[in-house]
Design goal:
Radius of gyration: 22 Å
Bound molecules: pyridoxal-5'-phosphate
Oligomer: single chain
Low-confidence stretches: none
CATH class of the largest domain: Alpha Beta
Structural class: alpha/beta
Number of domains: 2
Mean pLDDT: 96
Shape: globular
Order of helices and strands: HEHHEHEHEEHEEEEEHHHEEHEEEH
Strand order of the largest sheet: 2-8-7-6-5-3-4
Length: 414
């Protein structure tokens, strides 16, 4: 009999979003006329920028002509895209990142998971709590954890709580950790890491021979000039950090698929025999063997993000979502609800009123306002008592949802 990867059986099989779906369906079955607004989704809603579509159409036409047709491209991505990224996203911000250190991929969710291929199985893993579930689940699948306990915490993972109590800043652990996942701007809390906080992590990593996996999928949403967009803005980060970026949230590529991972050539890890091995070579080998690159058409669309029109259009997209976030923040605050995030991120992290649990608040919002959000406890035990509201939606939906909350919550207080 063929055996399976038993680690998959440890997974708390996709509990959060199916449970949300179940509760929404139960409610709408009973109230078929309710107009439910979903503010729970972490997916963009607005169309692809025109500059990207125009570039894709031109690329499709090239593919239709024998003289410009493209077959397999480089596994690492086309050099013209890697050079545009190196220049605009890194060198322009003073980061020493070369095009050869950038790997184009079909998603940073994928890369966050795939990166574990090149690391050993005995590394101590640290994540924040709450956390983007991909970091945890991919480690569970790879066999890096024990079983989950009643609160969903896996044995063997170091959880670093982030809440209002510590200003959503993960405390550097006293115990030594090897692989550290940091996400800034953060999904789900919408918090960002300051230069000082990042500096402290880089110092810790370099002092302990650890590697930071820095997820900057939301860097385009940073509005505060003092907040680093890249971990390579911090001295020493080239020796301890891998950075993940994506076109999903800044340019609406969630369905188009293009992202990138930066692996500095100065980054090393330890082999069993004690030798220091270049991480870049391992990732290059991994990608060359298991990946065949992103479609030429999609890479052309990504390149167009860096054109003058593309820059304008992606800035407008990001501003649109940030304006949604501002409306959400303002209306909730006026209704007497405590909010965090939503200034440098498309997520508003709400403190549930009246000490409600995340799920109780979910039920209350669904029943009284017909609004769906995401219970904070679904992202980790320390997310209990919080609730994520996403700014990825139409202006109309956001305004209507906030109008409903204003009415219900203001009325409830009188
Ligand atoms: C959306 C998101 C990404 C991007 O994933 P893609 O696979 O590139 O679409 C990465 N990290 C976090 C935390 C996200 O929320």
């Amino acid at each position: 009999m063929t055996t399976i990867n038993d680690n998959y059986l440890k997974l708390k099989a996709g509990y959060l979003f199916p449970e949300i779906g179940r509760r929404v369906k139960a409610y709408t079955d009973q109230h078929p006329d309710a107009s439910v607004i979903k503010l729970g989704i972490g997916d963009v809603t607005e169309p692809l920028p025109e500059a990207c579509r125009t570039a894709m159409i031109a690329a499709v036409n090239e593919m239709g002509d024998r003289s410009t047709f493209k077959g397999y491209g480089p596994e690492q991505g086309y050099l013209w895209l890697r050079e545009a990224i190196a220049q605009h996203d890194f060198q322009a911000r003073g980061c020493n990142v070369d095009a050869s250190e950038i790997f184009i991929s079909d998603g940073s969710k994928c890369d966050c998971g795939n990166i574990l291929d090149i690391f050993g199985n005995d590394n101590r893993i640290a994540v924040t709590d709450p956390v983007y579930p991909v970091y945890v689940d991919t480690n569970v699948m790879a066999g890096h954890t024990g079983e989950a306990d009643g609160t969903g915490k896996y044995e063997g993972i170091t959880y670093l709580p982030i809440s209002a109590d510590n200003d959503f800043a993960a405390q550097i652990p006293s115990q030594k950790v090897d692989l550290i996942y940091l996400c800034s701007p953060n999904n789900p809390t919408g918090a960002t890491m300051s230069r000082e906080q990042l500096k402290a992590w880089v110092q810790y990593a370099n002092a302990n021979g650890s590697i930071i996996l820095f997820d900057a999928a939301y860097e385009a949403f940073i509005t505060d000039d003092s907040i680093p967009h890249s971990i390579y803005e911090i001295e020493g980060a080239r020796d301890c950090a891998i950075e993940f970026r994506s076109f999903s949230k800044n340019a609406g590529f969630t369905g188009t698929r293009c992202a990138l991972t930066v692996v500095p050539k100065s980054l090393t890890g330890k082999a069993k025999d004690g030798a220091n091995v270049e991480i870049w070579s391992l990732w290059n080998r991994r990608q060359s063997t298991k990946f065949n690159g992103v479609s030429y058409i999609v890479q052309k669309a990504a390149e167009a993000v860096y054109s003058e029109a593309g820059q304008q259009q992606t800035k407008a997209l990001v501003s649109f979502y940030l304006e949604n976030a501002k409306i959400i923040r303002d209306k909730l605050t006026t209704a007497g609800i405590q909010v965090y995030g939503g200034v440098n991120a498309p997520y508003v992290w709400v403190k549930t009123p009246d000490q409600l649990t995340s799920w109780d608040f979910f039920d209350q919002l669904l029943k009284t306002c017909n609004i769906v959000g995401t219970p904070g406890s679904g992202f980790g035990a320390a997310g209990e008592g919080y609730f994520r509201i996403s700014a990825f939606n139409s202006r109309e939906n956001v305004e209507e949802a906030m109008q409903r909350i204003s009415e219900k919550f203001t009325a409830a207080k009188v």
